[in-house]
Write a structure and sequence with these properties.
This protein is 73% helix and 0% strand. It has 146 residues and is an all-alpha fold. The termini are far apart.
């Protein structure tokens, strides 16, 4: 019986540790949606620097940005949680989509692309880290002004 109690205590401790870690991972990197247009501008600039730059408004480029934006603003969505309130409309505005419903429809698609297509995953990962670096620089610049 003592072994059972000890095992239950271990399980509870592990569940608490996992719950805390999950909370860390689903906490958004960004909450200020006013940065979305700037992020999209940086995203397009990054794409233009390639040897064979893609069209800024291509469907694939918008998919890549949407995945990055979700990862930054609503990371739990990438594992099946709902988008944070108001984010569909913000993403729709920035990506110039006709309907916020389209954003919801694309979520599963972009996650699938990221999991299945190496080139898509590589591109998204590279731009994601580039945007994080620029964001850090931007935060430092704006913080030093005050």
């Amino acid at each position: 019986m003592l072994k059972k109690i000890t095992e239950l205590e271990t399980i509870r401790q592990e569940q608490a540790r996992l719950a805390a870690r999950e909370t860390e991972l689903v906490t958004p990197e960004l909450t200020d949606t006013n940065l979305l247009p700037l992020l999209y501008l940086w995203f397009k600039e990054y794409g233009r620097r390639r040897n064979c730059p893609p069209r800024d408004d291509s469907v694939m480029q918008r998919r890549k940005f949407l995945l990055i934006a979700i990862a930054l603003y609503s990371p739990g969505t990438l594992i099946g949680d709902k988008l944070r309130y108001g984010m569909r409309e913000k993403f729709r505005e920035v990506l110039n989509l006709k309907s916020p419903t389209l954003v919801s429809n694309l979520v599963g698609e972009v996650v699938f692309y990221y999991q299945q297509y190496t080139t898509f995953r590589r591109d998204v990962t590279n731009v994601y880290y580039h945007l994080l670096q620029r964001l850090e620089w931007y935060r430092n610049q704006t913080a030093s002004r005050f």
